[in-house]
Amino acid sequence: MASKAREPAHPLERLIFFSDAVFAIAITLLVIEIQVPHLPRGAPDIQQVAALANLLPSFVGFFISFWVIGAFWTGHHRAFSLARHYAPGLIVPNLAILCAVAFMPFATAYMSENFGERVPHALYNGVLLATALLNLRLVRKVTDTPYVDEAASAEDVAVTRARGWGVIGGAALAVLMSLVAPLWSQFALITIPLWMTLAIRRAKARLS
Amino acid sequence: MASKAREPAHPLERLIFFSDAVFAIAITLLVIEIQVPHLPRGAPDIQQVAALANLLPSFVGFFISFWVIGAFWTGHHRAFSLARHYAPGLIVPNLAILCAVAFMPFATAYMSENFGERVPHALYNGVLLATALLNLRLVRKVTDTPYVDEAASAEDVAVTRARGWGVIGGAALAVLMSLVAPLWSQFALITIPLWMTLAIRRAKARLS
Amino acid sequence: MASKAREPAHPLERLIFFSDAVFAIAITLLVIEIQVPHLPRGAPDIQQVAALANLLPSFVGFFISFWVIGAFWTGHHRAFSLARHYAPGLIVPNLAILCAVAFMPFATAYMSENFGERVPHALYNGVLLATALLNLRLVRKVTDTPYVDEAASAEDVAVTRARGWGVIGGAALAVLMSLVAPLWSQFALITIPLWMTLAIRRAKARLS
Amino acid sequence: MASKAREPAHPLERLIFFSDAVFAIAITLLVIEIQVPHLPRGAPDIQQVAALANLLPSFVGFFISFWVIGAFWTGHHRAFSLARHYAPGLIVPNLAILCAVAFMPFATAYMSENFGERVPHALYNGVLLATALLNLRLVRKVTDTPYVDEAASAEDVAVTRARGWGVIGGAALAVLMSLVAPLWSQFALITIPLWMTLAIRRAKARLS
């Protein structure tokens, strides 16, 4: 056996790898929670279309959560691409955000199957806000000593941290809206790029 | 802790890794949607065989989707083996095709449980066509500047892009056929290698 | 962004990676198919134990399939550790064995829920035999030109190929036994190490 | 195709990779076992809250198991970061702990759905204890010849091995408590850091 091949992976790589796997599984499990319609043989097309239309909340939930988890993965990817050193102190804050991400398929399915109700939307948006806060904590930690790559530019660090405010802003607005207009609260997530842009602009202004 | 080991992975590698995990999970989750028959103890063999025969559409759906997702993974693998540089612009088109792939277990189960009906076959083939189009967009992007490896041969790039037309041709034909002959529309996918060969031939002719 | 980091992964590595993910998912999904008993609150301990005892076939199925898939993963790991070159010809035979492995959770659940019946045991052992044959084909291919590492010893190659006969022998015996004594056919798998040892001995004798 | 890129991965890396994937899948599948409440449209908020409150045992089970599997992953990560050589002898003890980890989603769901009953809590804590013992065996093996990195410090090895006693202590106490006070036995897991600290202190005392 080739036991003298190149040296084993950087411990940081394994942490990243494990996190990627959890993100990938959570994002792919979302679809499992959508119940597959089974109609009697020969049911007219219009009934099939109606069965799919009934699932619209589930499709919307799948779509929103796919892109939200995708956004968290993107942030994780950006932040860790600026890191270069490993220390055990990363493990707990990293597991914390993964725990929140792993819970997303439940929150999504609960919202989808009770679409338009106050509690499910509030729970979903609350989980999103909690994930975003855990994400910001991790991003800040990993782009700071002792983890950060000494060669990382101050601007890259500042922008990466600022991006974390995007989902926080959108999710906080969504939580508030879900108390008064549950169904429409999900649209608040459209504002995520807005908060992100504002935060990045402020971060850049501070740097110069 | 060995914090001075070799440098962390290339950001492109992490994107590839995450994508591989999503492909692998989607391809393995297909089987979960097949309902396991549970017969009373001592049921005659013929009833067991009949229960399996009833599941034939599910087995067909599993098999088709396994190889279709496998084909998309192969295309992704080929295209990214020609890339060498990373930029954040890859993330959204890559998540877009993963979103379509993650939806495949639902489309497969819906078609399998309503085999022979127009709407389920049309939906399945439509999802396939959408995935193929998103795939072609990604393959073109990643084999172009700034991502492509400068050492990649023009022919490899042309052939890799041409291959993307295979599923597009087969799925487009299947969508049309599913409107008139749902059950037989799945056979249209057999033409995928044909369109692929034609597209590769044309691409090579253009090069010389 | 660090776009000048070390070069992206070897294409062989990505194929291995994707395969590992499919093996890992299939091996972990096995448990999902076991139905969780839910007894009325305050049910006596003896009823809880009885509910678990009823699941014994499912536990046995989980355990057998976990180690069988583990054995296939081990064979894959061994064979690919002798490979060093990549060519697209590996993709189809590799996807073929992954397709069979991805089907194992269904075959396992079907056998577990109809324990002792002829058809489910025959199907399970048949799937196992098919997987073992696809595995042998892949192992032979990857330990041959153009894939094999030129530095790999002839003995390592011969032994790795010979190991593939272990599951083939055990599964073939189990298929035959499941026709006459379904329940006991699973014990035939205990003979796997025997066939493996015999095949390795013969391979070594041929070499010297 | 770039068949002359850097050499394929170290066989140790592939073993680690496969293990990471199993840990990641088991930790993310936990949520799938939680049944999503589906209430009639327009049900009052208080009923939604009550439905969530009924799921409290499931949330508790998810949370405990997430962090317990996370702790096993952390231990695996630490131990293997001290290893540098590969030999086939690692495969069986590594698969053994993965088998126990893959079983955790079942044990968790069974405990959650029968919360407060003796048998489910005893089973859960028993599985935990078995996993912890298999973990200690693996950690000891991988931090010993021929696997251990010759450059690993004696203290790192001693501390990493000592940490393995944490879950063993907590789980053993929980098994005993589940026989007399099932519901409260889960709190015994809070003592895990205590046993870990004691074991590390003793290990360091022995070294000096």
Describe the 3D structure.
The structure is a homotetramer of 208-residue chains. Chain A has 208 residues and is mainly alpha-helical. Chain A has one domain. Chain A contains nine helices and no strands. In chain A, helix 6 (154-163) packs antiparallel against helix 9. The termini of chain A are far apart. At the A-B interface, helix 1, helix 2 and helix 3 of A face helix 1, helix 4 and helix 5 of B.
Question: What are the main properties of this structure?
Answer:
homotetramer, 208 residues, mainly alpha
Low-pLDDT runs of chain A: 1-6
> How far do the termini of chain A sit from each other?
55 Å
Number of helices of chain A: 9
Q: Pairing-aware structural class of the strands and helices of chain A? A: mainly alpha
Strand content of chain A: under 5%
| Main interface by residue count | A-B, 50 and 39 residues
- Number of beta strands of chain A: 0
Largest sheet of chain A: none
Assembly type: homotetramer
Helix coverage percent of residues of chain A? Answer: over 70%
Order of helices and strands of chain A: HHHHHHHHH
What is the average of the pLDDT values of chain A? 93
Number of domains of chain A: 1
